[in-house]
Amino acid sequence: MGAPVTSVDFHFDIMCPWAFQASVWMRDVRDRLGLEVRWRFFSLEEINRAEGKKHPWQREWSYGWSMMRIGALLRRIDPGLLDRWYLAAGTALHVEGNKPHRREVAEALIGQLGLDPALVGQALGDPSTHDEVRADHDRVTGLGGWGVPTLVFGGRQALFGPVLIEPPSGEAAIRLWQLLTGWLDFPNLYEVQRPKRPADLQAIAATFQPYLDARDWVTIQKETP
């Protein structure tokens, strides 16, 4: 068994309902174990981009990418602000069925956090926020990452997941953390998957209904490696 894990990079795209579910669990684990969780970006728009289409950084406004650019600016000011932004925007999209990927909604959410809504325009007017999101994305894809949530340990080992609904809390959350980090002891263990039964698919659809109602895009997902 390796040394206890005390920090993790959690790569997310605000648009992803699976990543949001895992982030709820991750916050519970963090608060109970005193972990350092560093929120990092990953672009589903870029990884699933069709050949010939614009990169997200070539668009004036690009759903998840633009929301992460706002997060990049907030992270510069205080990493805790990115944590709050992800929670607020993720809750709006995945729980409330709101549309934080629309600029006016993003500005309203920033205001609700007690911040100046002008930060949205500042983030979009600063080309270096593109660079920060892209650097996080390129870093995790360089480790073989292809989706979210992806957790990176020690800057070297990446694990995709956990992929779940109904995030566990309390002792159950810690138990899942222990099971997940146990994978780090087996570098040649690549995949374990629970097949989804019809009842599972129905539960997933019910959980993700706010997201499905709020999204303004057609989800495109390339085959995983």
Largest sheet: 4 strands, mixed
Alpha-carbon distance between the termini? 28 Å
Question: Any guess at the CATH architecture?
Answer: 3-Layer(aba) Sandwich
CATH topology: Glutaredoxin
Query: Could you give me the name of the CATH homologous superfamily?
Result: Glutaredoxin
The helix content, as a percent range, equals 40-55%
Strand order of the largest sheet: 2-1-3-4
Count of individual domains:
1
Count of helix runs: 10
Low-confidence stretches: none
Structural class by helix and strand composition: alpha+beta
| Rg, nearest Å | 17 Å
Roughly what is the average pLDDT, rounded to an integer? 95
Proportion of residues in β-strands: 5-15%
Q: Can you tell me the overall shape?
A: globular
N to C succession of SSEs: EHEHHHHHHEEHHH
Number of E-type strands: 4
Quickly name the level 1 CATH class.
Alpha Beta
What can you see in these coordinates?
With 225 residues, this protein is an alpha+beta fold. It has one domain: 3-Layer(aba) Sandwich (Glutaredoxin), CATH 3.40.30. It has 10 helices and 4 strands; from the N terminus they run βαβααααααββααα. A 4-stranded mixed beta sheet has the order 2-1-3-4. A hairpin with a 3-residue loop joins β3 (150-153) and β4. α1 (17-33) crosses α4. The protein starts with 6 loop residues before the first strand and ends in an 11-residue tail after the last helix. The model has no long low-confidence stretch (mean pLDDT 95).
